Amino acid sequence: MIKLNMKYKVIENHRTEYPNPLLLSQDEKVIIGEESGEDWPNWVFCTKLDKSNSGWVPKQIILYENDFGVIVENYSAKELDIDIGTIVEGIMQLNGWLWSKNMETSEIGWIPLEKMYFKEYVTKTEKDEEALSELIKQSWRSDIIVSRGKKYKVEDLEGILTYENGIIIGLGLYYIINGECEIVLLEALIQKQGIGTRIIEKIKEIAVTNKCKRLWLITSNDNIDAIKFYQRRGFCISNFYKNAMEESRKLKPEIPLIGEYEIPIRDEIEFEMEIYKTEGTSYNKR
Ligand SMILES: CC(C)(COP(=O)(O)OP(=O)(O)OC[C@H]1O[C@@H](n2cnc3c(N)ncnc32)[C@H](O)[C@@H]1OP(=O)(O)O)[C@@H](O)C(=O)NCCC(=O)NCCS
Predict the structure, then answer these.
(1) With a 6 A CB cut-off, is 197 part of the ligand 1 pocket?
(2) How many angstroms separate the alpha carbon of residue 221 from the centre of ligand 1?
(3) Ligand 1 atom 9: the closest Cα is on which residue?
(4) Which residue's CA lies nearest to atom 22 of ligand 1?
(5) Residue 117 Cα, ligand 1 centroid: separation in angstroms?
(6) 27-68 pLDDT, tens per residue?
(7) Any ligand 1 atom below 6 A from CB of 226
(8) Does the structure show a pLDDT above 50 at 120?
(9) Which run of H or E residues covers position 251?
């Protein structure tokens, strides 16, 4: 269950098929019916013991007792009838649905998540760290991040995160020291939608606010896409460290030998953007 307090925009009208929603109290016993299919997993069709009403209930709040279930918390199956363009506040996300509050009427109910859209760029906080570590482990084989012979974990770094419908789809982690800002990790889980560019812009704003002389980062020799990406965003190559990956592998043995386009991962390339010099260049005017 993901708890939220974020605004979403409705992108498709929703009308409920259940105008008389099922309401259940904590510890109430229900008759267990069919389970939802793969498209909407983890919903169970339940009927009240007196058969006065039925509806879909999240599997997570049912304790099974043979053909019966005991409901572990008060529950409402109420769905919101809602039109495109309405702004709602998402309270909780569960099994593909959003428990939300219509900001205009204050009415509360479920809306299918696929009919909602929400994207925001936020500053990383402690509560993001568990999900971030997991994500980094999946993408980079370990939650340890190595850059120029230094080991970092998520909690050592500041960051800008892109959330789409409550899920992290972009991350930029940075470290400011001695008047320099290093982008230690940048990743867009959905690429070519402008997420990487926007995260860099936001980190650059922070570097400017912190009066950093430069923004810099390291990428490996195989990462041709990133090498293109950074140069297109106004970064220049500022250093080249031949065979530096040997040292990095001592700190993080999970770094593979072969990378993008079957290129051996060998060297580190440093990119930088001199903040004061780059102000007002074509990149900044874009
Ligand atoms: C490198 C990386 C962070 C770039 O992030 P991204 O979100 O894909 O970058 P953007 O979408 O901002 O820009 C990428 C390209 O998509 C284009 N683009 C952006 N929005 C677009 C859209 N709606 N339609 C079509 N193209 C679009 C951009 O113009 C850019 O092309 P250009 O460089 O020729 O100008 C991303 O590819 C990534 O996560 N790579 C894997 C991890 C990695 O290698 N990180 C860097 C390690 S140092």
Answers:
(1) yes
(2) 18
(3) 196
(4) 193
(5) 21
(6) 999 999 999 988 889 999 999 999 999 999 999 999 999 889
(7) yes
(8) yes
(9) helix 244-251
What contacts 24+ positions apart, CB below 8 Å, involve 82-88?
A: 82/10, 82/13, 82/14, 82/111, 83/10, 83/13, 84/10, 84/11, 84/12, 84/13, 85/9, 85/10, 86/9, 86/10, 87/7, 87/8, 87/9, 87/10, 88/7, 88/8, 88/10, 88/116
pLDDT tens string 157-197: 999 999 987 789 999 999 999 999 999 999 999 999 999 99
Atom of ligand 1 nearest to the CA of 219: 48
pTM of the model: 0.72
Domains recognised in the chain with CATH numbers: 2-117 (2.30.30.40), 120-285 (3.40.630.30)
* CA 227 / ligand 1 centre spacing (Å): 11
- 């409901």: which residue's tokens? 71
Kindly give the distance from the C-alpha atom of residue 229 to the centroid of ligand 1, in angstroms, as a whole number. 6
Backbone φ and ψ for 213, nearest 5 degrees, come out as -70, -35
Q: Could you give the 3-state DSSP secondary structure of residue 161?
A: strand
